[in-house]
Amino acid sequence: MAPKPNPARPDTDPVHGQTVEKKPANPNPTPSSSSGPSARERLASLASHLLPGGNTEFDYVIVGGGTAGAVLANRLTEDRNVSVAVIEGGPTDVGNDMVLDLKRWLEMLGSDLDYDYPTVPQPRGNSFIRHSRARVLGGCSSHNTLISFRPFNEDLDDWANNYACPSWSASTVQPYGDRLKMNIVPVAPQQRNQVARDWVLASSRATGAPVLEDLNAHIVHRGGFQKAVGFFDIAYDPYSGQRSSASVTYLHPIMPHGPYKRHNLHLFLETWVNQLEYSPEDSSKITGVKVTTKHGLSKTLTARREVILCAGAIDTPRLLLHSGIGSRKDLEALGLPCKHDIPGVGENLTDHPESIVMWETRDTPPETVMSSDAGLFLRVLPSDAEPNPHPGPDLMFHIYQVPFADNTERVGYERPKHAICMTPNICRSQARGKVSLASANPKDKPLLDFKYFEDKDNYDERILIEGVKWARKIAEQSPFKEHLIKEVAPGPAIQSDKDIGEYARKVAHTVYHPAGTCRMGTPSQQHGGNGKDASVVVDEKDLRIAGLKGVRVCDASVLPTLPTINPMLTILMVAERAAELIRDDAWENGLRRTNYH
């Protein structure tokens, strides 16, 4: 189903805040002169905290004010007669320069704006990986590097053809990318330092990959590529270096301090959802959520229509499990009652793992947008290679112009003062893990077991071995090699495939893309469908949890597989489509009213 005409298109109607036009590079960029909102505006933006005596009943309750939640909040509140509550565990990003200034993204890792989830021991991988999850309005779009790619057509068609998601083909989903509000542009020319420029040229020479000026435009017009190199497309303002996050573009204009504030949007910041609330008359119907504020106040928020879970691939399954929705065996082992036996909750955990190849350099490269401004895509195994036959790239590189050395230092390598790192990552990892509960206490962090490099045939490890080899070939090319002093890690002594693979696994890291833990598909007969896969959690037709009423999921957890590239735009597009599905359902049930702002 292609996007339908909107009676009051929010991307053109100034009442809803105009879409930010793509901004050309400013020849004389200067930092933003804005000092942020006034104290009064800050108080207004925080006034939606849950307070005694406040409204606790809404049409829609969105759990999570992150990447997907921001989109849904904006689109659903376009109808002024629909009330929407957004519950966000973190604070606002309004006026917070550490969040809004893209180049400061590294400062947020491990900060009080990071849930900082550890992984369980990984027998074949790095057991010290910390999975950063943003605790701030805008979610990971307020925390990540905002590298922005549309999904490849083959990724979406793979969902439709091989994962029982026929309504999520490329022809259906790609048009929703045209609705996105973010300002997505290639890294501005004046922010492309010479080291990165030389790396792009060296990568092209070493691999034969064409240099593309606009990688994302190539995907939009041609559906993808097999190999390419170039500067990334970033969702940012090239004048100021500020984020064009989901929060900035979808929420800020309609929040209390914004120019188009909507009184039917209710934000509950620094508020935690503990459990879903069931109807006393119908145990298969979700009617709201139980929440606790940072001040310890507990309340139940009621959804007259639906609860929409947008808490992400870790916290959405976590919430479901604490609400008695998941594997009966696992829940009862923790002393939790199982209200709905859906064994796929928390399963199918996937990621984009990466490794590190590091060189010492002569000095610190000039400042860039966010220290990782360019990338390379390659196909290193035959396109019919099992277990991942497909025509697209299977290896991606970031180049980091900082010492990305925590993991290498842990296994005995030096930390150079100045360094460049190439980080080969696995575009279509075959490893699948699980999110589970550590205990029955909702305050305890969940257990994250990605099962890194435990896939059959060692596919993931083979990709990284090839990645290290290609990184070394790139480093031999002039003029890029003139920037390098020596290879620090893995070092010239590591040459055999066995040794390279062991090194690559030991120092492996994450690109922070967990997904798949409430995957969509065709539900099994047990849950009211005719599908054959009992691991399906969400019905692909409408994103409702299989066998339940009054609750949907819309975040990275529903993805059957990760797209080949960074998934942020994919998640935004899923959310844009979800908003349309929800509004269409309301219309069919006689609930939708076309009284737009």
Automatic annotation (TrEMBL):
GO terms for molecular function: flavin adenine dinucleotide binding; oxidoreductase activity, acting on CH-OH group of donors. Residues 10-24 have a biased composition (Basic and acidic residues). Residues 312-326 form the Glucose-methanol-choline oxidoreductase N-terminal domain. Its cofactor is FAD. Residues 1-41 are annotated as: Disordered. FAD binds at residues 136, 273. Belongs to the GMC oxidoreductase family. This is Related to Choline dehydrogenase.
